[in-house]
Amino acid sequence: MNNPFKFGGQVTGEDFVDREREITELVREARNGINVLLISHRRMGKSSLLAEVIRRHCNDFIFVYVDLYGVTNKTKMSELYLSALVNSAYGTLEKAAAGFKTLLMASRFRLTVNEKGEPGIEFSLGEPTTPEIQAILDLSEDVAKRRKKRVVVIFDEFQEVGFMDGTTLLKAMRARIQTHKHVSYVFAGSKKHLLLSIFEEREGAFYKSARPMDLGPIPDEDMERFLTDRFSAKGGRLGRESAKAIISAAGGNPFYIQQIAYELFNISIRPRWPEDFETALSTALEHQTPAFSTLWDSVKSKMQRRYLLAVASDLGATRSTSFIDRHGLRSASHVQKAIAQLDSRGITERGEIVDPLLRLWLRRLTSGQTGRSG
Ligand SMILES: Nc1ncnc2c1ncn2[C@@H]1O[C@H](COP(=O)(O)OP(=O)(O)OP(=O)(O)O)[C@@H](O)[C@H]1O
Ligand SMILES: [Mg+2]
């Protein structure tokens, strides 16, 4: 039987739960020309939320969605940007060719068609220069004015721009973006540290140029209903306590909620509590083991490792003397330093482990349940 739970990648439409308030807010800010900085922990549902906004409002705005995940250079970024713009503003190669006549005359671009028949743009020679990138960004403003329709440019994983050319590129982009009156921007990403340094620090290239919006978990009741409804729709039954346990083990993270539910559904459409739930949770943890092991191996400092293991299983106040003594953490300043380093890597936030399943995995590591020695 088809498993109704989906994890990894964007979910929209029938698979999309709640987020009504966030959708309303994003649309309102887009209309008002207020740029938004959308931040959340990993896999909290940013890209799905943005995809759902696009799906529901594709007639109200011209959306230019640019996913910068894995993009390491300006050429690729410009191609993605232009292809997204050409696609949503023109749709066909002929229309795009007419619309971009002056741009194409510069002859550094070539119109292309991908496997799906969608028009795109490729750079012919070398990397685009800063003025070229600025001219490319200005195209959205032109399109918006000509079409008399607001353009919404969405940069997903925006922090990646910072790795392409230091702050030079960011500053060049900001210089154009702030002149655009008919384009609204959404900058999204999960590297909170980096994004806040770009948007919230005085020296940041985008200082105060977007309204921060933190995306938290989906309310428990909505997730509970989603889980129980999906089991019943397939002729099964999921008890309330199992639904609650899934959400709690996943720390409210929708990706993990769907992953655990997926495993549970595979075991039985009428799972038994708690044994089937335990099996599903262990399977979900096993799937994360390669990623968690890599992360764990990358933590070289003994103090940071001790701290992580301690904070995963001990609910005591992390800076208290008894906590420090219990876990051999030497002194409050050692703890402070470990937290600062783990925070800067995004593994912890103010000393708390960010990823709920990593926390569980570390807890099991100490008790020898993960099938791996430390
Ligand atoms: N509104 C939602 N309803 C149901 N499931 C959701 C929702 N949002 C996210 N999910 C679940 O979480 C997974 C990850 O979502 P998504 O890729 O949108 O998150 P993200 O914050 O963009 O992640 P990343 O940090 O990896 O970019 C989805 O595949 C889906 O399983
Ligand atoms: Mg994403």
Q: In DSSP terms, counting alpha (H) and pi (I) runs of 4 or more, how many helices?
A: 16
Total number of beta strands: 9
CATH class of the largest domain: Alpha Beta
- Give the count of structural domains: 3
What binds here, in terms of ligands, is:
adenosine-5'-triphosphate, magnesium ion
- Rounded to the nearest angstrom, the radius of gyration is 24 Å
CATH architecture classification of the largest domain: 3-Layer(aba) Sandwich
Sheet bearing the most strands, described? 5 strands, parallel
Low-confidence stretches: none
Percentage of helical residues? 40-55%
Measured between the Cα atoms of the first and last residue, the distance is 39 Å
CATH fold label of the largest domain:
Rossmann fold
The H/E string reads HEHEHHHEEHEHEHEHHHHHHHEEH
Strand order of the largest sheet: 2-5-6-1-7
Task: Identify the CATH homologous superfamily of the largest domain.
Answer: P-loop containing nucleotide triphosphate hydrolases
